[in-house]
Amino acid sequence: MVEQRRATSGPGQKTGTGVMSEMDQTQRTGLRITAVTCVKNEGPFLLEWIAFHRVIGVTDFLFYSNDCTDGTDRMLDALAARGIVQHLPNPAEGRNYQMEALKHAATQDIVTGADWVWIADVDEFLNIHVGDHTIPALIEACGDPQAISVTFQFFANAGIEGFEDRPVIAQFTRSHNPDIWCGETAIEVKSLIRNDFPLQYYGAHRPFFRSKLPPRKHPKWTDGAGRAVPHKFLVAANPRRIRKFPAMGARVHATLNHYALRSLDSYLVKNDRGDVNRENRAFDDSYWRERNDPAWEDTSIHRYLPALEAEMARLRADPEIDALHLECVALHGARAATLLEQPAYQEMRAQLRAASTLPPQEETLLRELGLWEDAA
To answer: What are phi and psi of 101, to 5 degrees?
Structure first.
């Protein structure tokens, strides 16, 4: 028999809240921290992500949006009018939306004037295990380097089918073993970048500096445990290690919780957003299966819930913001319902519901070892 994988609550974090619920951590540290992100049809999830990042110390937000049909752009415009975010149309002329936006972001005052820049997506939440659980505490714990790359932990759908209008971080608590993902010990990262980093350009997962930069000028760069990142990652020497390195021991001070799947219905909407033409083409469930491993339980990010809910309530106390949020929720649900009128999406939903929760790579390994019948 294959040994059952055990559950844990994360890498030794506190169980209490211990999180500053007001913005006074910014005044205390004096740091200006800008979050940069690209969105398309993320309306129901915007306020949670903004509120969460305000709680952990982000002071400024730069959003790029394109081709939104669920009220995302209207919500961001309203938030921008109140000085809560800056919202720009994505400048991409082709399909490389994120890289074009990041190139543009590097010229914007909100980025060039920041002490630190955090580039992440709206389904990614920086779970900080040290101090008061804010970004300044993470920076201090890592020794104030010029960059910090934090390891992903992919959170599974775990059988949650319907969309609910409540915090994503409260709903999804199951993940893979944080040290191993899809049979590999190296896991992708996202990065915090200090303003004196010798930047050539921002990547979605990490910054890059010139390949001919002398070693003595290489930046001080740590993982989420304050350790120097591996040299091959630092200098982008190996294409397979440009945006990942071994995860074991890398999450002492922080983890990046990635909720790429969310509910089954929300995943269908996400899939529709990214690829609407499925005629005569089989659906590949690999992305879902690679991220739907529920072997581990980790509720450590729940320490933020009281402060998060209070900050979301402050944002929604504005009647227009609240109405726009509810509109986004309604449009998200309506789109899911419309998709499920189509046979292709009915089949997709059934396929995802029935899919194995073992990642394809692990299933292949078990087959090679002759253990798949016991595991199935």
So the answer is: -65, -40
